Amino acid sequence: MGYAIHPSLIVLLIMLGAAFLVAMGFGVSRIYGTTQDHMLRPMSNEQAGYMREVRERGMQGLYWEGRRSQYRGKGTSMSAMTPDE
To answer: What's the whole-model pTM score?
Structure first.
């Protein structure tokens, strides 16, 4: 004796019900939730300086990784990239 509804349809109905409940929960939280402003705070000077240093270190690491791959022959040399005249 099998199911009255195909098992795939049961799974689909459960997924649709879960999505509906998530949407309802989102709606309720939007109406009755906190009214905090979710904007990002501006960075402090110390944080901006730190982020600048991190970007510079990352760019230096990329530069040296590229140089190392050129030296080992894993990349295209600059002379091969220039057109022949």
So the answer is: 0.41
